[in-house]
Amino acid sequence: MKRLMIKTLVAAAALAVAGVAAAQDKTFKLALQNPKGHPLVTGAEKFAELVAAKSGGRLKVNLFPGGTLGGDAQAVSASQGGTIEMVMLNSGILASQVKDFEIYDFPFMFANSREADAVVDGPFGQKLHGKLAEKNLIGLAYFELGFRNITNSKKPINMVEDIAGLKLRVIPNAINVDWVKALGANPTPMAFPEVYAALEQKAIDAQENPLNVILANKFYEVQKHLALTNHQYNPQSLIVSKKVWDGLAEGDRKVLQDAALEASKFQRKLSRDASATTLDALKKAGMQVTELSAAEQNELRTKLKPVIDKHGAAIPATVAELQAELAKIRAAK
Question: Could you say which residues form the signal peptide (predicted)?
Answer without folding.
Answer: 1-23
